[in-house]
Amino acid sequence: MDHRRRSRVASPAPAPDATPVSATSLPGALARAATLLAVMGPGLMVMLADTDAGSVVTAAQSGARFRYALVVPELALIPILYLVQEMTVRLGLVTGRGHGALIRQSFGRPWAVLSAVTLFVACLGALVTEFAGIAGVGLLVDVPRWLSIGAVSTALLALILLGRYRRVEHVGIAIGALELLFLPAALVAHPHLGALAHDLVHPWRTTAGYPTLLAANVGAVIMPWMIFYQQEAVIDKGRQGRPLRAVVRSSRLDTAVGAVVTQVVMIAVVVAVGATLGVSHPGSSLASVGAIATALSPFLGRAGAVSLFGLGLVGAAVVATLVASLAGAWGVAEVLGWRHSLNDAPERAVGFYALAVTGVVAGAVLVLVAPDLVTLSVDIEVLNACLLPVVLGFLLALESQLPAPWRMRGARRLATYAVSGLVIVVGLVTAAATVAHVA
């Protein structure tokens, strides 16, 4: 049994390892900035991981086949992404318990096991696509697959086993910032503003394959492991000696900034590929990461395609591998009642660290027999869309059990339930259409 968190859903609990930081001596504005910076990180990191290798390839495929048509869905997903992840922030900070632990406490072990299985499937799929993306970029510069995967997985294992949440977060955000290279790639591609405006007004397509990519983009934005990761991350990071309400406000801003950043990156990928391949080879399908970079080379130059697209994809894949492996370990350990903090040394949380290591190793090994990245990535994102009813259902049910001052009310509650229901319906309908098309 995990004795580190005993609070009930209805009882606020302080986060562990909180290090008091006094800002009272600073001027007002500077003190508020210090408060914000002290708690920011979990939202930004999980959102950078959200734009993982599978998401990037899905966005690239969207641009290649339908130019800018899927920019509108990407924009529409920003508030949805924020509303979903903001609930995890409140659950974690108010209860002091992770997502899996709350499900076990509120609904019993069988439902907790179901959530853990859902998480395991999503994490394993994510880890395979991340390592496949890393391997694909390595091949662009003639680095053997075994070497690129081996080097990255070894570095990640070392980072995880060294422990301490702050170290992991700082390294993860620094690496994930490479995704910002997709922004200059979109500008260098010189998108046609008239065509972009047309697709913003008329985004829907009746062409075969559009529902699949729409479902994939929905699944690429809200993933099960994001919920587990951010809820546990805000606990492991601690409240820094701040009042709960101040920390919740700052964490909401952290989440909002991250939601905008991740979707801007996705849009940049859609625009960059839509302005190039979407014009020269409209409707084309891409077979690998190498194929995407090669196809972009005539427009961005070989060096530009490798440096902008390649490094951006590496940043996305590495931070997502880190987040997915930790999320899986956190979620399963919570359900089993094991110690599961990065602030615990490996010898104090053996099961948690073993799960994280196993996830990284399994993803690295499985990628050696994985099919092409593009097909695999789209399939995994469609699978994520199919898992949304379970994930969002648990999240909404847990949020409704928070103490009254922390629950959603009125218009906000209606809006959250409406958009969550819409995402579930869109995901299931388009996934069903995809299965029917394949059959």
Structural descriptors:
mainly alpha, 439 residues, Amino acid/polyamine transporter I, disordered N terminus
Average pLDDT taken over every residue: 82
C-alpha Rg (nearest Å): 21 Å
Q: How much helicity do the residues have?
A: over 70%
Give the second-level CATH assignment, the architecture.
Up-down Bundle
Task: Name the helix and strand elements from N-terminus to C-terminus, one letter apiece.
Answer: HHHHHHHHHHHHHHHHHHH
Number of helices: 19
CATH superfamily: Amino acid/polyamine transporter I
Distance between the termini: 46 Å
- As a percent range, the share of strand residues is under 5%
How do you describe this structure in short?
By secondary structure, this protein is mostly helical.
